[in-house]
Amino acid sequence: MPRKKTITLYTIAEDLGLTIHTVSKALRGLPGMSEATRKTVFDRARELGYRTKEQEAGMSAERIPWANAKPRRFAMLVIGDTNFHRLQLEGVDLRLRELGHSLHPLIVPAAVSEQSEFDELLNANDLAFVDGLFLTAAIPEWMEAALLKLPIPKVLINYPSDLAEVDSVIWDVEYAVHRSVKELYDRGHRRILYVVDIEPLRGFRLRWKAFAAATEMLGLEGLADPGEHVIGFAADRDVWMDHLCGKLSSGQYTAILSVVPGLAEWVYTAARILKLSIPEHFSLVGMENEENRFYPDMSRPILLVREAGERAVELMLRRIANPLLPYEHVRLKGSFYAGNTIRALRA
Known about the structure:
Layout: H1 9-16, H2 20-27, H3 35-48, H4 53-61, E1 73-79, H5 83-98, E2 102-108, H6 115-124, E3 132-135, H7 141-148, E4 154-156, E5 167-171, H8 173-186, E6 192-195, H9 202-217, H10 237-249, E7 255-258, H11 263-273, E8 283-286, E9 300-301, H12 305-321, E10 329-332, E11 336-337
Parallel strand pairs: 1-2, 1-3, 3-4, 4-5, 5-10, 6-7, 7-8
Antiparallel strand pairs: 9-11
Helix pairs in contact: 1-2, 5-12, 8-9, 10-11
């Protein structure tokens, strides 16, 4: 017999003070309401454990076990403690709890820098006895390689290395860079300053590769020359800021693309030092993991970090239930928030 739902559309509608028709349209993705209302309905339905027939069919079609599944215990390896990691954790934890499972974060201290120390940490946390392991982005590559050898199911929340045999999911920063360059180009910008280190992480290298490809596609000759940009490591903030201020005061650039979360705030600082304003003197696109509370109207591509965590759970459960399926790499492409930091230039 079909599983009886204790939560109905009427339950959600009554809880939110909406009509059943509005709730139904929201959950089916139909037009006719604000995005805020749609999100409120969707979030409340998730909290109450309600699924539409289409959602249940989608889970079954992807071979993801969800009905009466055995509770499982998963670990998630995290390097550092930033909003970047918090968003990934939130996504994984939310989706696991929805499906009746639990998550145990394993925070790796920054002092762990050798394989022997790392092995001791893994043994102390009984990592071999969990049902699966989630690997967050920004894990050192030597550490990631060691973890991928463990004989347990794994999902990488990052771009995989070329030969990695693992399911993976990532918010698509390459697409975000392409989209950002195109948004600036469409508003008349041809001299775009790229701001961030292009090493040492895989994601940094892919961002620069995407910038070079986007500028070439749009015919912006010379912009793919690293010497034209502020790409050095920002450990010495004074030296880095001097370099940035020198570029901004040169008058060569009409726009800045800051492609790592947090650096856009330093661009604003440099502008204040030079007594320049955004977007009157130059436009700015920042790549933030979420809305910047100091600059909420900053133009930016939407990076689906939390959603990548949720999708990682589905890949994990699919892998456990279907161990012989081919590995998948999923890229989540977000939209673009126009904001108010891009000024259209006259043709």
